[in-house]
Amino acid sequence: MLSTPLSRKDGESFYKTQLELMKQEKKTLQERLEALEKENRELKKSVHELTLAIENGAKGQVGGGYNTQFVFDIDAALDGDTNRIDHSTDNEPSGQEEIRFSCKINLEAHAGAVYCLAFSPCGRFLASGSFDKSVRVWKVENASDRPSVSIHGAHDASIIDLAWSSDSTLAYSGGYDKYVKEWDVASGRSTPLTTFSTSGLVQAIQISRSDNLIYVATTANTITWFDRRAPGGDEESAGVLKNDSNVNTIYLSNDNSTITSGDRLGFIKTWDLRKADTKPTSVTANGPERRPITHVHASPVLRGEDEGRLLAVNSYDNYLRVYSRGERLLGGSPSAMRVQHVLRGHHNRNWPIRSSFYCGKDYRPYRETTGWNSTNPHEADDFEFTTEEEISDYKAANGISGSLLLSTGSVDGNAYLFDISGGSGNSKLIQVLEGHQGRCYSVEFHPSEPVLASCSADSTVKLWKLSRASSGANS
Q: Which UniProt keywords apply (predicted)?
């Protein structure tokens, strides 16, 4: 009996110790659970983060110093307001607009987010690249079938961009494994014809009209190009332009004389490829905040012209800007390009989203739209409009064939369709294309027909076709 108080004391001490251990274990498990939930949330938010983890888990910050392996701001993307869409009143869909697209086909073959698309120049094929590391090629005329070409394991990391040769027989893919690969689509071979190695993660690729030169934008702050004709072209580059930040996107002029880049510091730069000087010939800040640029591309070439008049620029600030290129293309003032339209309604803050132009076969531009100065003013007067009333009447008679459209993807899973046929600032959001269940990373118009392809984090590709248009439109 004398030992009872001691036993009780020992028992209380034992239980206190066990309780403390359980509390500590609970705390450890709670911390682990929170860490797993955060990791799961980040993985759901962007497959990019998983890909970049291969590159030593690189992280960066908007502005100031950053790691060159970083591609986009995942921390800012996880902000609580990232899913809120700010629809501006001036870009509400127009109820009077007769141009309407509807989803006709769902293409389902990828096992991961589909990030990039490219129609072949002939318009018969559509290539898609995915985070599942595969390239698929679909025949547009029977796209509801399985892909005509499936290249599994095309890269060792996510596929970021695609391009085609001018004769539509070769496709090119760029990936986060720092390689660009050339594929013989005509034969359906699943092994690359050639592999080109870069010093950084591939962000974008462009092919010269001669098909001889391949230009690559990278996270190593460079634009590198390779000559397919050179022996050992897969080992050494033919040239390099050095930038002061990640080059996220490039657009090559039709005559291969200049290349336009968009970078992580928010600058649009033009480089003259004919000069030995590696400094850009022009630099334009994209918006007051200079948010990172994710995509630049020119509008289709019009009758009697060598280059597209407009440049569309996607960036991380929920705006799609359209710049006039007229004066610069004609050797005019070296001042910055002029903003023509600022499109709102879509959502791409902190996310890499791409856009695409559609130009109707009968489209005629508005003279004020670009300040374009033709060498033959009488011919220009016959081709260009001078008033908004003329444009309105012409579009009423010609529908989509007389229109210039611009579509963009969006983080909310929708594709947004704008009519930018009018003069400066006169643009309309005419339709929101709903259907994807994840971020819509990219859209791509067919080279000649009113057909739009969109791809998404939901692993699908959708083909949208014209479902309703005014009497003058092509159906």
A: Coiled coil, Repeat, WD repeat
- Starting at the earlier edge strand, list the strands of the sheet with 170-175: 159-164, 170-175, 179-184, 194-197
Closest CA to 353 of 475, 240, 456, 436: 456
CA distance 176 to 49: 12
Strand, helix or coil for residue 207: strand
Distances from the Cα of 328 to the Cαs of 257, 266, 323, 336, 449, in angstroms? Answer: 13, 20, 11, 9, 30
Q: Rounded CA gap, 290 and 220, in Å?
A: 20
User: What is the spatial distance between Cα 146 and Cα 164, in angstroms, rounded to a whole number?
Assistant: 21
Residue of 338, 342, 313, 324 lying closest to 418 (CA atoms): 342
Reduced to 3 states (helix: H, G, I; strand: E, B; else coil), residue 6 is helix
Supply the mean pLDDT for the chain: 80
- How far, in whole angstroms, is CA 433 from its chain's centroid? 17
Dihedral over alpha carbons 403, 409, 412, 414 (to 10 degrees): 50
Map tokens 């930040």 to a residue. 245
User: Residue 474 is encoded by which pair of tokens?
Assistant: 């092509």
| Cβ atoms within 10 Å of 166's Cβ, excluding its own | 14
Query: Alpha-carbon distance 324 to 379, whole Å?
Result: 20
Q: HEC states along 35-71?
A: HHHHHHHHHHHCHHHHHHHCCCCCCCCCCCCCCCCCC
Reduced to 3 states, what is the DSSP secondary structure of residue 174?
strand
Sorted by sequence, the CB contacts under 8 Å of residue 43 that are 6+ apart come out as 49, 50
Phi-psi region of 230 (alpha: psi -120 to 50; beta: other; left: phi over 0): beta
- Give pLDDT tens digits for 160-172: 999 999 999 999 9
CA distances to 19, 20, 426 from 14, in Å: 9, 10, 78
Give CA–CA dist 82/68, Å, rounded: 24
When pLDDT is cut at 50, 70 and 90, the band that residue 26 belongs to is confident
For residue 13, the model assigns a pLDDT of 72
Is-contact 326 372, C-beta < 8 A? yes
Give the start-to-end residue ranges of the domains of the chain. Answer: 1-45
